[in-house]
Amino acid sequence: MRRVHVALIALLGLVPVIAGAQGLRDRLQGMREASRQERPVAVPAGGTAIRNIAYGDDPAQRFDLYLPAGAKDAPVVFYVHGGGWANGDKTNPGVANKLAYWLPKGYAVASANYRMVPAAMPLEQARDIARAVARLQRGAREWTLDPRRVVLMGHSAGAHLVALLGADPRLLADAGAVRPLGVVSLDSGALDVPALMGQRRVPKLYQDAFGADPAYWRSASPQQQLTRNALPMLLVCASERHFPTSPCDEARKFARQAEALRVPMAVQPEPLDHGEINKTLGLPSDYTGRVGAWIDRLSGMR
User: Fold this and answer.
1) Among 6, 106, 261, 294, which lies 20 to 30 A Cα-Cα from 213?
2) Is residue 92 part of a domain?
């Protein structure tokens, strides 16, 4: 009987732990679901928002376009959200700060959704973004944009997607897109997918996105797809982040390979966490100024 009492006491002691773990899982699931919801985005005075422009038949294949006041042949910052390839939305926090910075400078900003895992895996998601870029460029005259002055920008999973498109622009060409000027990758942790998937501990979000096939890892990996025809890139990385890999180490390795191929590529470490790399871009800071200056040089807006 004493053993039964001891076991019962131990079990009762575990109840709060189990309840706490379930509560954490519920909160995380709630955050994921919230990240997929469209929300209002503040547009600077004089700017114009065109919502949910279709580039495919799926409801997820939509982008928003924000035009500066008096737009005429405006260059474009084309932004791709993160969310582990399975979550996120084109209106997620951080978009408003980018509008506040780039629209007054005369840039248009596009922010795109794409189909999520498991409906579309990362390589097909990259093709979605290529289709979205092509759609934007086809409508350039209507929206008073310059289709030849497009810079791709993405955060986290979105950074992986734009880096993949930049590494081998044939995906863009296959979709009918005019070659963009370059890529800004905001803290991608998946520049070398085979190396990432070979880590001792691989978070489930990467397993869900990239599966278990090494051939697929290579096909969806910017490092393995990098060619001499790659786009110039700015690789922003969180200097204090080291799990599951160090994004700055990955960026430097990627840049070394690009240098050997004579592809212009710069690494910009920032002492910010993964979310801050995205959310604070556009707020007044040296960080924003450095990214803005790199884009200005590409776009001829200096």
Assistant:
1) 261
2) yes
d(CA 110, CA 142): 15
Q: What is the pLDDT of residues 81-91, one digit of tens each?
A: 999 999 999 99
The mean pLDDT of 39-51, rounded to a whole number, is 96
pTM for this prediction? 0.90
Other beta carbons within 10 Å of 208: 14
Residue 155 near residue 94 (C-beta atoms within 8 A): yes
| 147 upstream amide cis, omega within 30 of 0 | no
Q: How far is CA 62 from the centre of its chain?
A: 15
pLDDT at 35 over 80: no
> Is 22 inside a domain boundary?
no
Which structural domain range is residue 183 located in? 42-299
Residue 170 pLDDT exceeds 70: yes
- Domain assignment present for residue 33? The answer is no
Number of H helices, E strands in the chain: 13, 8
pLDDT for 11: 47
CA 117 to chain centre: 15
Number of domains in the chain: 1
Cβ atoms of 149 and 75 closer than 8 Å: yes
CATH number, residue 280: 3.40.50.1820
Mean pLDDT calculated for residue range 169-184: 98
* Residue 252 pLDDT grade (very low, low, confident, very high; cuts 50, 70, 90): very high
Note whether residue 106 is domain-resident: yes
pLDDT of residue 6: 47
Residues near 179 by beta carbon (within 8 Å), at least 6 away in sequence: 169, 172, 173, 231
